[in-house]
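Dear U.,

For the methods section draft, I wanted the exact inputs and outputs in one place so we can describe them consistently. I've listed the two proteins in the order they'll appear in the manuscript figures. Please don't edit the token lines directly; just add comments below if something needs changing.

First protein:
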Amino acid sequence: MHNFHPDFLGEAARRIALKTYPRARQFVVQHLYPDTLRLLLLLHEHVPIHCIIGIGYSGNDDVVSELKAAGIRVVTPSFADIHTTVESELARSLAHCEEQQLELVIHEVGGYAIKALHEKFEASIPTVLGAIEVTKQGVWVAEALPILKIPQLNCAQTRLKEIEGKMVGEAVVAALDNILRELGYAMVGRPAAVAGYGWVGKGTVHSLAKRGMHVTVMDTDVIKLVDAAVDGYAIAQNPKDIGTPHIIIGATGHQSIHADIIDSLPNRSFIVSGASKNHETDLVHLESITLNKYSIHPHVDAHEVKGNKTLFLVNKGYPVNFTGSSVPDEIVEFLFCELIMLVRELLDQRPAPGIYPLKNDLEEVAAQIWLDLR
């Protein structure tokens, strides 16, 4: 498998002349898949990794084994325990760096460690050189901090990330389509609703439409609703206007399938997340109205709810695209090329506290590498 893929990441490290940084250590919170394995093993050669926390709703046992074989500490908590695990392991990494007079780099998806650092370990902030972040969710976490006391460099606000977002939308629909086919269910000709018309939401909507579904778009941003309308989709500013969708997908990064929407869904609707974590659906409300629950598929639970109807929750509210291969590795890897560049920028430039997207000229280098090697 490793020989099949062009060495996008190695070429990125060579073109930017990534150095080794023996006086720095990485604290990593990541999804653990083969593409991430290649990234982490490469970065470990340049900036040794002190600890990796695998995100609980994603991962691969073989990847964990290979990381451990490389001498890296790997912790794989359940998603319910990720916050407490990040806190305890971050304390351990900070103590190690302080004892050895090393600098710590946070490398994460989702903003877990940057939040824990500011809320629980303020005295150790001088030990942390900064953070690199892959997701918008992590950028939002940093933006929400009262005072951001370290730099956060990200590839979540770049043009290549927008391209990847479209592919995530396709992966959401492809994974859902596979599940529904296994249940003997056809998408074509049925109504669907999608909450969110950002990068992932737009890709999701287009992919549903290509499969013959009649899609209504919900969004709190009226500009995005105009965009959806111009693209030819029905729009809904109010939950009561979504009609009777057979499938509803949340793709906002926040809770979007609220209690009132859940209550209005018709019998035998599928509730799906197309964003990170399990934020999109009001799972507490769904459980509160559930009278009986049973599995109809390894990734689908039937909830018999008040009102004499059954709702189908996909992947327990976690992203449906994590039930399969999600986005192809070579798409993710142009973002990982960007992340490698962020590591060099952080360690060499040492920016002041703040939020910094990857510079345009460096993003163009990552794009050129991808074109050259593909």
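Second protein (the one for the lower panel):
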Amino acid sequence: MNQPDLIAITGGTGFVGQAMIDCAEGKGITLRSLARRVPADRRSVEWVGGHLADRAALAKLVNGADAMIHVAGQVRARDPREFDAANVTGTLNVIDAARDAGVRRFVFVSSLAAREPKLSRYGASKRRAEKLVAASGLDWTIVRPPAVYGPRDGEMLDLFQMASRGIVPMPRQGRASLIHVDDLARLLLALAASDEQTSGQIYEPDDGKPAGWEHGELARAIGWAVGKRPLVPRLPDSVLGLAAKLDGLVRRDNAKLTPDRVGYMCHPDWVSTPAAKPSESLWKPEIATREGLKATAQWYRDQAWLG
């Protein structure tokens, strides 16, 4: 595969985007990123101020690019319409800009939640976005990451904080796959180079653990990472639904346990499909999850995110 000279990305200031920038700098890859607020530390990235509804900014983003990696999107929202605006309409706008600029290679970051669109508005929006990508006429690849963890992540932080307090409530049953953000970043950059192997594929990468992590096992692994042996009570769906309502009242727009999220949290199978994993000749995970969790806990402590 030939590495593109310039890769345009969205979401460069986010969790996955920052990991991609780290990886690109190590490999000497040139990135241009869209950002609502251009960071003061511009690093080695060419930044374009704008958002997913700003067609002029998107045109500037993709001008002269060899490939597009679309990461930005809405992960949680109190108003479900925000999912459609960001994940569906926003993706369509990025597709249009890439097509108008002649950028053929398009990598889209979706979610395992797209496998079960009836469970959540988030998953439904990602599934609709996938359909737009597949119908775009571009040379596309879709990546459905499982739960992503690592430094800078605010979504799984609550689990680490609960583990440090000695109790991690979990749904009654279920298994889930994980992936470290640095491993995901390496995959996305590898996919920016088009070839017959990856074109038109939907990938479900993970950390390499067969059958994923049972919820209690994961809670205990996070506890180990923070130096605790937490209790892991199993909560019924109704209790998690009530907890989501309370979280909304207390943290309002910053609530992480939303009713929409409860819908897919309680689904028992969020394990990556073995047949949908990338071939080892393209990519394989390098970070052992227990060590990755431990390093993530230390990063949280260094940032004073974790007591």
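Candidate sentences for the figure legend, describing the second protein: The chain has ten helices and 14 strands. The domain at 6-149+178-207+270-286 is CATH 3.40.50.720 (Rossmann fold).

Thanks,
Y.
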